[in-house]
Design a protein that fits this description.
The complex is a heterodimer of chains A (121) and B (209).
Chain A (H helix, E strand, L loop, with lengths): L4 H11 L14 H18 L33 H13 L8 H16 L4
Helix pairs in contact in A: 1-2, 1-3, 2-3, 3-4
Chain B lengths: L16 H11 L5 H19 L2 E9 L5 E3 L7 E10 L4 E4 L3 E4 L9 E11 L8 H6 L1 H13 L9 H23 L27
Antiparallel strand pairs in B: 1-6, 2-5, 3-6, 4-5
Classes of the chains: A mainly alpha (121), B alpha+beta (209).
Chain lengths: 121, 209
């Protein structure tokens, strides 16, 4: 399966156990998840600028939206897919509601940083 | 069943840039291809600048009333990085990287000629470097790339100790390349001798103290 913005959102939704029910809305709308992805891209840009050499380091980052960018190819090297997936899930879990899991959020956000900056992560 | 060890295609891809990219890429975790490519280019350019490995001896002619000779770019792939030697003008002003101006006043109305020894460097990563660089100095280039990568802060592969080691090996490779270029690529061709003064010789030919 090709890695796309849409596939990352789908996988995040699976980890969040938030697949769209037959009736009713999911807990996290696509807009929220893709917004977390955009935020995660900023974090990657700050921690690993080398990931954005292809974009040009003095240019603004692309901002993705759903469903427009559902099939847009994952914009940076594949090695950043997994950290960003963890970021999106962790960032989503930070939301203050009955079902959120702070411990899981902290773990995933830490894993995101560790995967970007360390070999043993 | 095929012998996996016989599949040398994996390990001897080519004697060009791919080999360098593959070797470094296989060693350094978390490295992006774009950064690797950028650092390879930085290293190759630096290698040529510091070692002056490619030197070209050229003969030049300056027509009457002309005062500027421009050796740069040397051709579509190579640029001048410095003058290693120059002769033929009494009053010359050198304008890096490859321009010489005759500052004689009034402007001479005769033809002038002479020779120059130029150090060249490739002008981009797509330039095919000669086989001897890729084979004799492959380790030096690889050490240069690893030195630059390990030296970077805040990366999964940051490692100052390794950076220093590879830096030393890289500089040693450059020194070797420079010596080879100075010897005009002839090793052991002419015995190297200490300068006369270094063996205790005196101006009057007397040896020792």
């Amino acid at each position: 399966m090709a890695r796309t913005v849409g596939s990352l959102v789908t996988e995040a939704r699976q980890l969040l156990n938030d697949e769209v029910p037959i009736s009713g809305a999911p807990r996290f709308p696509d807009a929220d998840l893709v917004s977390a992805l955009n935020e995660g891209m900023l974090q990657v840009r700050a921690k690993r600028p080398d990931a954005f050499l292809r974009f040009g380091l003095r240019l603004p980052l692309p901002v993705y939206a759903m469903p427009k960018d559902k099939d847009t190819a994952f914009p940076i090297e594949d090695q950043f897919y997994s950290p960003l997936l963890f970021y999106v899930v962790g960032r989503s879990e930070l939301i203050e509601d009955t079902f959120s899991d702070d411990g899981r959020a902290v773990t995933l956000m830490s894993k995101f940083t560790a995967q970007l900056l360390r070999v043993s992560s | 069943m095929s012998d996996p060890c016989g599949d040398t295609g994996l390990f001897q891809s080519s004697t060009d840039l791919d080999r360098l990219l593959d070797n470094v890429g296989a060693l350094v975790p978390g490295l992006t291809t774009d950064l690797l490519t950028m650092v390879c280019w930085n290293t190759i350019e630096d290698f040529y600048q510091r070692s002056t490995y490619r030197r070209e001896h050229v003969y030049w002619v300056l027509n009457p009333q002309e005062v500027v000779i421009n050796f740069d770019p040397y051709d579509s792939n190579w640029r001048v990085c410095r003058f290693m030697g120059f002769s033929g003008l009494q009053q010359a002003k050198f304008i890096p990287p490859g321009r010489v101006q005759d500052t004689t006043y009034p402007v001479p109305d005769n033809e002038r000629n002479g020779e120059a020894l130029l150090a060249l460097k490739p002008n981009n990563l797509r330039v095919d470097l000669p086989y001897d660089v890729w084979t004799n100095y492959f380790e030096a280039l690889m050490n240069g790339v690893l030195h630059r990568l390990y030296m970077q802060p805040g990366k999964p592969y940051s490692d100052m100790q390794a950076a220093q080691l590879h830096g030393r090996l890289y500089r040693s490779g450059i020194a070797s390349a420079r010596a080879e270029a100075q010897a005009q690529h002839v090793r052991e061709g002419a015995p190297w001798r200490f300068p006369y003064f270094a063996v205790g010789g005196h101006a009057d030919g007397r040896q020792g103290l």
